[in-house]
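Give me structure tokens for this 284-residue protein.
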Amino acid sequence: MSNYVQRFLLENLDIRGAVVHLDSVWQQMLAGRHYPQPVTRLLGEMSATTLLLGDNLKQTGRLTIQLNGNGPVSMLILDCNESLHIRGMAKCAQNIDPQPVPDLLGHGQLLITLDMPSMRESYQSIVPLDGDSIAEIFQHYFKQSEQLPSRLFLVTTNHAIFGLLLQKLPAADQQDPDGWARAEALAATIHDQALLGLTAEEILTRLFFEETIRIFDPQTVHYGCHEDPEKIYAMLRSLGREEVDSILQEFGEVIINDDICNREYRLDALAIDAVFREAGPTVH
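Here you go.
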């Protein structure tokens, strides 16, 4: 299994980029979700893009990317931290037929939030959903935010995700006037799924076989969902004993759904008693 982001530089063209590949982490994210195939593809493409952006985090922080629309896929949300622990989910209709991305998403917006302890307040960017694919939506964002021509190439299956980012640096045209167009054309051939089984170095040397490529060390990606019951306890304590007891009386137990990690917590009367004592209970 290989889950990584790996950056590279086409030295003679002054073009930088990154490769992202997920397999076991992607399968963990999909486990128990049962999304329709069009939703799986969108979530995979968003996951790859989130990691390509999150790999730029140089200090402790969390990047959250949320796509909201009024189509049958009403929300896609991904987040990752500086260690590339990623998690994500989709909200969608139960039955969705294959259709163009703008029809799946409808009218809406892309919301990108960056939280870091060193920042007084979160950085937030909101842009409209402008594009016929996830790649085009984010290319529009890159153009506005980084002011660098960028291309994204994304491949998603039920078993693996692959993504390739190219960015044209300011001196690229002086290095080679045709270099950017050539690199774009070569990168577009990644949609051959046979590439999914290759290493980043093998992929890049096949794609850019005539170029000088500097390949940096890979950064490992992890699945970001782990049990943190103390957060559940803190939330219940913030509601107050009276409110929690009323829920317990009505339903016989307190059920809390963690949608982004696809996990359910159930607490009975004994567990609730323990929540409001100093030691927390074990939840199931």
